[in-house]
Amino acid sequence: MQETAEITDKRLLRGARTRGIVLRRAVDLASLEGLDHLSFGRLAGDTGLSKAGIQTLFRTKEALQLATVGFAREMFVDAVVRPAASAPRGLRRLSALLDRWAEYAEAPLFAGGCFWAANLAGFDSKAGPVRDALFRDQREWRETLASELRYAVAAGEIAALDIDLAAFQIDALLSAANTALRTGDDDVVDKVRRIIDGSLTVRG
Amino acid sequence: MQETAEITDKRLLRGARTRGIVLRRAVDLASLEGLDHLSFGRLAGDTGLSKAGIQTLFRTKEALQLATVGFAREMFVDAVVRPAASAPRGLRRLSALLDRWAEYAEAPLFAGGCFWAANLAGFDSKAGPVRDALFRDQREWRETLASELRYAVAAGEIAALDIDLAAFQIDALLSAANTALRTGDDDVVDKVRRIIDGSLTVRG
Fold this sequence. Notes:
homodimer, 204 residues
């Protein structure tokens, strides 16, 4: 019994490792070429793992796409949202989120830059669970920004404003900056930061 | 000799017609699924024309993609830029451009909404002539907006502002509005219009 349990543990561990290797490559590919271009064959070729093994893990292309979106979301939260959580709530945390986002896009975390900028527009006409997952992430990110704006207004740090509209606007500017960054406009993130800071009236 | 000329004319005419039919379908497809998903076979199936005939006209997939971008640009200019040119220059023409753009995205002119919003982010990591054409169009559109902003400032209609940054910002908001429209947010264009109008201080 114990031996069987050990074998099962080892199998699970190997499955989890394979999954991680495949998904790490998948998020890069999807940020460069879009989630539509993911395939078991391509990922097998890129990672050196067997196509049959990858297919057994994910079963369908849609399941692979959904797992890729989930993996990208975890990486984004680890790189942008979680580090900013150590800043005090309100304007300072919003500022920390924007600083981390700038690093995320400039470094970049994914080979092709922002994962959602690369995929949202391509999936906006394709109803289904992949589109739903991408837009759920976008709503969550806008709500993360809105939450700090709301706090900043309540604390008297900035003048009252239409919170949801301001979050929409910040997100729109970051997406456009990401695209411009990819084509060599290195100053664009600073420019966008100036627009955002300028749009928030700081209470004296 | 005359008969030969007539045959050539008819052939050219037939070629031009076929080209128009294929490209009208191609811009819709590319707005829905992206330029990457264009293929001679798919277009033949959708239009009822022969695959060999379409291939003879365009030769390569890249040439087909470039012709599709050019066709989309002409349709955009006809639907948005040209009609607005009857408005007086400055703030009124800018307003006419934004009205026409709203119709362009809401009607929509292309089955999947804004052609550039659907394709720019997907091509931003793919160096080559297709990316260049898409980004040239984006620059031209931003410059169209910038030109009216510049005029409005010079004419004292609005307060001085960073023209290029303002054009970047308007374009970013329109792109984000296009994506939100596709997923059922029908009020988003009005919301974005309020942001833009609010950002331009009208001289009293």
